[in-house]
Amino acid sequence: MEARKINEFEAGIRVEGFFMIKTVDCKITNSNNKKYLDFVLCDKTGEISAKLWELSEGEEEQYKSNTIIKVRGSILSWQNNLQLKIEKLRNAEASDDVRVEEFVPTAPFQPEEMFQRIKNYIDNMINEDIKNIVGIIFEQNKDKLNYYPAAKKNHHAIRSGLLYHIMTMLKAGDKLCEVYDFLNKDLLFAGVILHDMAKLYEMEANDLGIVNEYTIEGQLLGHITQGIKNIELVAESIGADKEVTMLLQHMVLSHHYEPEYGSPVKPMIAEAEMLHYLDIIDARMYDIKKVTRDTKAGDFSERLWSLDNRRIYKPMLHQ
Fold this sequence. Notes:
The chain is of the alpha+beta class and 319 residues long. The chain has helices spanning 111-123, 128-140, 142-145, 161-179, 185-194, 199-202, 216-220, 222-238, 242-254, 270-292, and strands at 14-28, 35-43, 46-52, 68-78, 81-91, 203-205, 211-214, 300-304, 310-313. The model has no long low-confidence stretch (mean pLDDT 92).
C-alpha cells in the first residue's frame, strides 16, 4: 500500500492516505439501481474522481464536502482518466494529526505566530481606551481568527488569511508612519486590526478556512455595519471616551471608500485615508503575487479581476 500525492498516481497501484472531499454526490447505477457515492477528492497537488460502489446503510450521509477523509483503494484507468476505486474510508479524526496545509491554501505563517505579532502592536498602544477596545475584540475572536480567511473568493481567501492580511498591513503601516509621522499610530493600527474583523460573523467558514456561505446577518448587514456595532458594544461596556469610539467606528465605516463598496462616508481623518490605501495595497500585492506565481518569466498572467481584468507581466528580471 503506497502513500502518494494525487499527482503521483498511476493506473494499477493501490493507495492509502488522507484527502479532502471537494464534492460528493449519492447516485444510482444504471445497471442495477444500486446507490453509490461519487467523489472528487483533492490534495494540494491535484484532484481525482473516486467511487465508493458498495454502500452500507446510512453511509451516504456520513461524508460532506470540504472535510478530510482517510481512503484505501486502487487506481484505475477509465476513459483515459485516472479514477480511484474506494475499498475503505472513514472521516479523519483528531488523533490522525492531519496537516491541513496539505489540502488547502494556507497563510505562510503559523496562526499562533501571527496572532502574537498582532497582539504585540495592541500591547504597545498608548491610548488606554483604544488599547482596551481593540484588545477585547481581538481576544474575543481568537479561535476563529486562527483559521478564518479574509474573503470567500478574493484576496487572502486562504486558511488564516485574515490574520495574515492584518499582520502585513500593520507592518506596512508601521513603515509609513516613519514617513508620515503626524499620524496617530494607535488609531491607525486599531483601524487595521478592526476593519475586517466582523467578517468572522459575515461568513460561515469551517476549520479548513473554506467559506461555504454568508450568514443571514452578514447578508442583511455586512461586515462594516457589524463591525461598528461591535465597537459600540465593547466601548460602552468599558465606558470608553465617546470621541475615541466615534473615530474607531469612522475608520471601519469609511475603509471601502465608495458607497457602492459599502462605505456610506469617505475618510475624513488622515488615519482613515491611510487605512483605505493600506487595504488596497495589501490586497492587490497579494493578488499580483498569486497570479504571477505560476506565470513564466517574460509572459503575461491570466486576467486579474481585482485589477479591472488586467493581465500582469512577469519580467525576466524576476528570474
